[in-house]
Structure formats: structure tokens, C-alpha cells
Predict the 3D structure of the following.
Amino acid sequence: MHSVVGFAVFGVDWEFLKPYIVLGLALGGVYALSGVGIVVLYQATGVLNLAFGAIGACGALIAYWMINHTSWPHWLAYVTCVAFGGVVNLAYGLLFGPAFAARDPLVKMMGTLGLALILLGIMAWRAPVGGAFARFLPLPSSSHTFTLFGAFVNWTQVIALAFALVLTAVTTAFLRYTNLGTAYRAIANDREITATLGVPVRRVEASAWFGSGLVAGAAGLLLPDLITSLDYAALTFLVIAALAAALIGRLQSLWVTFAGGLAVGLAQALFAPYASLARYRSAAPFVLAILALLWLSRHRVVTITRTAR
Amino acid sequence: MIEVEGLTVRFSGVTPIDRMSVTFPGGTCGLIGPNGAGKTTFFNVLSGFVRPAAGSIRAFGEDLLGMADYKRARWGLRRTFQTEQAIEQLSVFDNVAMIYEHSGVKGAGKRAEVQAAIQFVGMETPSAAKVGGLGARERRLVEIARAVVGRPRVVLLDEPAAGLPEEETEHLRRVIQTIHDQFGALVVLVDHDMSLVRACCETTAVLDFGRLIASGPTAEVLLDENVIRAYLGTEDIA
Amino acid sequence: MAASRTPGQGAAAAARATFSLDRGSIVRGLAIAVFLAIAIFFLPTIGADWTTTFTSVAIYSVITLGLGLLYGRVGLISLGQVALLVIGVWTSTRLSFATDLPFPVLLLVTGAITCGVGVLIGLPAIRLSGLYLALITLMAAGAVNVVLVAINFPNGGGGFTGRTDTPDLSGLKPVARPSIAEGDTAYYRYVVVVAAVMFLVALLHVRGKPGRAWAAIRESEPAALAAGVNIVLYKLWAFALASFMAGVAGCLLAAQVGQPTAQSFQTQDSLTLLATTLIGGIFSLWGAVVAGCFSQLLPFLFQVQWGINPNFVLILFGAGLLQVLLTAPGGLAQQFPKDMANLGRLVWRGVGKVTGGGSGS
């Protein structure tokens, strides 16, 4: 009955597409929450953290090691993954944040590329990928499924999407209604002046680094389960999809970032069933990011100051 | 001659230039007014950095606003900036040569013309020295050398004397006074140093709040009541 | 005011202006000649796998040169140079299978096509600056990477992609090296010569009119504009030059490897290129050579000569990148001579003290 109705709508075979829509929404959830993590950090510190994915990948590998090579409880591994994200991000922010504070956003971003290289090097060194050997990081929630509108949904997918939704809502409220949130927005506006107003800028920035890092860790934990593979290279490039979402949100609006993340996830998943396009589906985040960038910069402004170096 | 007709500039809720109409007749012309009067914005419109909401500017009979920004230099527009924009990486010679190269002047006289401009402003350091290592006075002179090389038709000087001590201003005065005679260009001088303006400019226009409030022979303009009031304010007893 | 000159005198004057014959230039010229002599005559004698590595060093220094010019001279960052390199490799492979072009022509054609692609990408992006330009080039590179993995490299098949699932292995000819340089050593020398030509092209640009315009654009766009520089044109010119060099490097790489596969290019190559370019030094053309050594020689040394895991080198690059960004913007090419000069001064002073020179103590 459902499929007959479904087919009648837009001539699309919804029945066929349902599992891809589910996957797309779940992936989109991870992209969306990563996007929010990136945007908030950018707002508070001016740093566009391209090491976001690498941090999550590192955390995931650590969780993998804990689960498969120690007898510690699994929940500890999950917590470690998330906490690792927060700690590494915070460490980078404390060590290098002040040094980069006066530089322009491009240089700040390049610093995070240095961090990404270091993490990639560590991961390639300690956890080499080779031949038929593949790693997996399944979460207990994915073994529980239920049916929704005739599609199979597992709880990890629900968590991914729900977490993204909750994070966006809570962060938006946080930024608008709390003192710390106002401090974030003040710093985003002008760091120097905010400092002279007595706001503890470094502490506020540290909280942003830590919070954003936690989100990176969470993304690193959820993604391997959703794509059923722990491939640190793929995880590192999660940052591209997150970036696409963040750019769609103009590096400002969290809800638009959320929507952007979902769009990127859906675009990527929905190409999969179409054989001729499937191989190109990983290009979806890149293409969307390019379009977002071109749209963002459509007004050209000539500023009459010396370029800060 | 530069004819400005009904020029209006608006951005972000401010109107820095408001229906400004003025004629710069030729020779060396002054443009003065209190801070925020719109003088630098006017220069920015001439340079092409700012697009006006309305109005027209005709320089020597040609429509300046219709020209693409980088083409105006080729036409003969030159300017100095309040914060010197000489390229620190390059030598004095290269800085001036660059203007010459893009000025559309054909022929093989580059070295000679660049040297002539550098000599004209009376620089003492060798032309191969990097601008990054020069002091404020020398940088000002490099700015002016860049403004007079390569057949200039209009030279805009934006507060060339700002921050300079007495003796330097003397030297600057002599240089500015000679620009029109030597190069035939129309000079528009913006500065707060009234003695400099009085010494160099035959005519002066005065802006306040983006509008022209006086123009004519410099001596008369400087005695005009409206001008004095614009600078000093009125005595308003509440 | 301007003395009348004959065209010959004018050209001579222009040449003299570009290559002023003062003592500094003569010393530099000598240094370059000595370096090239060592590279061409001495280096290939060390060993066969050293020669292959040195060939890679030369090839990567060409692509680094392009990026260094873009960032060091114009202030534009492109994170997509590796993608252009890959396009160069693909193009030359495809052309090599489809036509019988002599190698120098293949080099130029590949360079031109890659240049065209680079300019196409650059055109919409040129209004962007700084962060957004870096991001858009990163995205474009990623998209190219996806397409490459999808269509893989040509292997003798027909059609646009030149790939067939059933390659005729008997008649398979890999990308052909120039007939005068088929062996590894001969090909290495050929590559060094091509690289030297690229460096010369870069030098001519930097010392001439484009170099001055680029310096102006990098420091202050309004000043450049007011000076009459057509900013869009000069930015695109820099992009075109960097893309051309990437294309040439790609062709050289294709002939070195013979039969390129998609696995030869890793996703982090864009990052390592950026890191090594900055570490090498973007303000000096020598920096590109240093960067080539870093990115190709160091992993070789680690893995083959010293038995250290080559992935460790990524950590080095990351740390090096951070250090360059924070403390030594000119990279090694700028720091090393300074450090040597400082060391020299210290030594000189030390010698002076020991020999008791100057006024009596």
C-alpha cells in the first residue's frame, strides 16, 4: 500500500530510496553537528579547524584499540574517544591559540593543517592500513533496529540525527541567553575590545576549543558505525562535509548549518543507488562547498588597509 | 579642470558625500574641511574604490566614473594615501618604475623618467634601497615620486604633511608648488596644515558633512565665516 | 626628457635592468652554475635508487615553485596544486597513448592544458582572497580526486577516459620518455634541465614587470589599483603560471613512473605539498629546491637508508609547518643563510678574541 502511494508521488520509487534516505539523514546528522562545532569555534576564536576530522579519527582509533586490545569496558572506550577530542583540541588551542591570535584567518587555518598532518602521521605510523585488513567500530546502538515508515532504522542513526538537533538547539540558546554565550559573540565581533571590557578572553576561547573538540570526538565515534568502516583517511575528510555545512551556514547561522549538513548527507547517500553516479557521490560535499563559497563571496570589497601578515 | 556634479555616496546608513558639486579649475587646488567631511572618501571615489550612488565627475572633459578603476591610472590619475602604500618589498626605483610601467607610456625612456621623478622630490637615499628600510620622510617622498611619474594629468595628494615636522614641510611645500609647472598636472591637495594650503594652492574648496560650503581663491576662502564656523563650531549657549 | 633610443639599446637597457651585473648577482650566478653542475654530473653516480629519488626531487621542486610563486609573491594560497599535478599526469598519459608527440611537445601541450584548467578554476575564485580561496581550491582538488578515483588513469583504452577493463598488455606502452633520455640516469639529467628552465621562467617573471605588480598586489591591493595594475589579470597570470608548472611536472612524473595508477596519489599530498613549500621557503626560489628535497628525499632516507617509518615524516612536516607559520615565515631558504651568517659572525668574533686582535686587553 505504502509503495503504491509512494511511487505515485513524483514518480520516484520511495520504497527503493528509503534506506538511502535514512542513511543520508544519519550521515547528515554527523555532518551537521560537526559543522556546528566548526562554526562555534570559528566564531569564538577565528580559527577554522581543518583538523576536526583527524581529531575524531584519532579518538576513534584509540577507542578501537581499547575495545580490541584491552579488557576495559566498552563504554570507557566511547567516553575516551569523545574526551580525547576535547583534550587534544584544547591542548592545541592553549599552545598555539595565543600565538596565532593576531594573525589573519588564513594563517590560523593553516596552523590547523599542521595539526592535521601531525595527527595523520601518528595514525599512519601506529595504525597502518594494509591489504585486506579493515577495522570496524560498531556501537551497541546499531544492533537495535526498528521500522519507521517501512524503513529499517538503527539507534545509532537516530542518535546521530537527534544529537545534531539537540546540539544545534542548545548551542543556539546558549549563545543567545547565557553570559558565556554572549562572551563568545562579543569575542567574535572584536577580540581586543572584548578583552578590555574585562571578559576573560583566554578562558572563553579555551572553553570553545574544548567544547568543539568534544563534538569532534563524538563525530569520530558515530561515523565509523554509520559507514561500517573505521578508515582514518575517510574520517579525516569528514571535515570537508562539515565545512560544506558550515559554509552553507555562512559560518554564522547554526540552524542553516544544520540544514546544510543534512543536505550534504542526503546528497551523498542518494547518489549511491544510481550506478552511473555512485562513484562520484563522494564529490557531493566538495561541490556543495564550492557553490556555498561562491555564493558567500559574491560581493567584492576593496579594503583600504595594509594586509595583516 | 575637474567638474563634479551632484556627487552622492552612501554606505551603511551614512552619507559621507551629499550632493557635492564643485569645480577644480586647474593648477594647484586645495580641498579642506574638518575631519569626517568626506575628503578622503572623495579621493576614493576618484580612485574607483567607492562607487557613488549618484552624480558625475568629468576630468578634462572625460567621464571619469565610466572608466574601470585600474584604467584611470593609465588615463593619468595619480594619488598618495594617508597611510603610505609604497611596497616595502621593492626598492625605491621599482616602486616608482611600477607606476611608469602601468601608465601606458610607450617608449624606452623608463629609467630616465623614473630617475627624474626621484630626483624631483629630492630623495637622498639611493634608488636601489628597499622602501621597507626607510624613514617616514623618505616614504612620503617615494609616495610623491610615484604620483608624478609617467605623464600624470591629475595628482591627488592626501595629507602629505601629516605628522611631519616644520623643516620637512618646508621641503614638501617647495616640491608641491613645482608639480604643476613641471608636469602640467592638475593637483588637488588635501591637508590640515593651512599654511601649506595657502602657500601651494591658488584656489581652494571646503567640504563639511559631505557638502561644499565654500570655494574660490584660497585667501578669501580661508577668511570665509562659514569655513571658520565649520572648523571651530558655533557658540551655542543652551 | 626621455632620450631617444634605438630598439636594440632599449632591449639592452631592459636586460640590464633585469640582470644588473653587480657583485651579488655574479656570486649568485656562480652558485647556481656550481649547483647545476653537481646535480647533473655528480649526483647520478651515487646509486640507482638515489637517482630515482633525485628525479622526484627535481619534479616536486617544479610544482613547489608554482605554489611558492603564488603564495610568496602574490599572497594567494591554492590547496589544489596536487590536483593539477594529477591532471597533468592524466593528460600526458592519455595523450601519450593517443598520439605520438615528441616529448618536449608533450610537455608543452600538457602544461598548456593544465594551465587552461587552472585558469578555469581560478576565474570564479579570483575575487576571493585568503581563506576563501584556499578553501575553494581545497574543495576543487577534492572533487578532482573523486573523479580520478572513479575514472582512473588511461591504460590504452579508447574514448575520453582512455581506460578499458581489458588492457592489451602485450602492446602496452607506458608514457614514453624522450628518445634521448630513456635510461634512468639520462632521464634524470633531462628532468634537471627542464626544471632549470622552469626556474629561469620564474626568475624572469619575478624580476620583471609581473613580479613588481605581484608585490604590489600582495602588499596593498588599493595601491596596486591606484597604480594602474589590472589586478584580476595579474592574479590569473600567476595562477596560470603555477598551473602550467604543475602540468609540466605532471608530464615529467608520468614518464618517470611509466604507468601511473590512482594509488600513487594520496589524499594528504595536498597538505604535505603546502607544508614542504612553506618549510622550504616561499620568498626565495631556492626554497622550492629545499622543499623538493624535504618532500622526496627525506622519506627515502627515512625508509631505505635509516630504517625509520616514513610516516614519521608527516609529523615532521606538520610541526615544521607550525614553526614556519609562527616564527620563520621565510622558511629554511631564508632562515638558513641567516643562521649561517649569525654563526659565521659568532665564529669570527671568537677567532678575533682568541688571536687577541684590536686594542690591548
